[in-house]
Specification:
Layout (H helix, E strand, L loop, with lengths): L1 H7 L5 E3 L9 H9 L3 E5 L5 H12 L5 E6 L8 H10 L1 H6 L15 H10 L4 E5 L5 H9 L3 E6 L2 H10 L3 E5 L5 E2 L14 H9 L6 E4 L5 H9 L4 E4 L13 H8 L7 E3 L7 E3 L3 H6 L9 H15 L22 H9 L3
Parallel strand pairs: 1-2, 1-9, 2-3, 3-4, 4-5, 5-6, 6-8, 8-9
Antiparallel strand pairs: 7-11, 10-11
Length: 342
Amino acid sequence: MATMTLLDDLGIPVLAAPMAGGPTTPELVVAAAAAGGLGVLAAGYRTAEALAEQVAAVRQTTGTFGVNLFAPNPVPVERDAYDTYRDRIRHDAERFEVDVPAEPREDDDAWQAKLDLLVADPVPLVSFTFGLPSDRDIDRLRKVGTTTAQTVTSAQEARAAEQAGVDLLVVQAPAAGGHSGTLTPEHVPVDRPLPGLVAEIAATSRKPIVAAGGIMTTANVASALDAGALAVAVGTALLLSPEAGTSAAHRAALLGPDRGSTLMTRAFSGRPARAIPNRFLASHHGGAPSGYPAIHHLTSPIRKAAGAAGDPDYVNLWAGTGYRSIRERPAADTFADLTSGL
């Protein structure tokens, strides 16, 4: 079975999770392969052309890698809620002298163009998050020899993914940094430990499982494997590696004073995502509407300007619950520590 071979051929049961928006780079993906694991490029927010360039860059060094796609699962924002939130963040836009869109922007992150690219130029693994692709789209990838994976956050989602025909499941707990992969983003996922979620899904699913969310130590890895996962995916633990494309503002926040426990918020994108608290969250966490990708596009000019200014208080500081444990070191050292003694 292709899925079992893909995971069984790894030297270590660890994947470098796709982190869209900059942190995942070809260098980080290559570092994961060099350590014996597998890295996954983040196609989210990139054009198909930019993705093709990253795929080519990785292939110069390794053939062991994957690509993650944002599968369409729009949550249209109510127009009144959009206008109210736009008025609410207007003073933040004025702070950075940027304009925010007056009209809600809805798109599918160039889904078809990226899918067509990966059918024409196959990679070993393609994973999906945010939405569940059609059976036909999944079959197109499988026919060219690609292993397919679906991010799920519940047993119900796992059943739907299995019925759709994916090869493996990426079981994500709410402790994960960045966006939740929930298929029902109008609802915030119920907080629960990763091992329990993995065990529940493993008890009924025939699909191999990659466990994600809160993986920061060897003990976390062992617990996920003991619960039924064949491998784990790590993201937050790699944010301070030199291979990661984590922004200067994001790095400054991770290395600076403790900002407190992470929050699951819609403030930046209109979709549940876990972030480190900052001034933007303090002001808008409670008033953010549900609506993706419209709210993502609404706040984007502010976040980009803040990032360019090196200001961590107005950017999305995605991080998992264990972010205080991150160390500034090469990715190879993190992979070694995570698998020591397994």
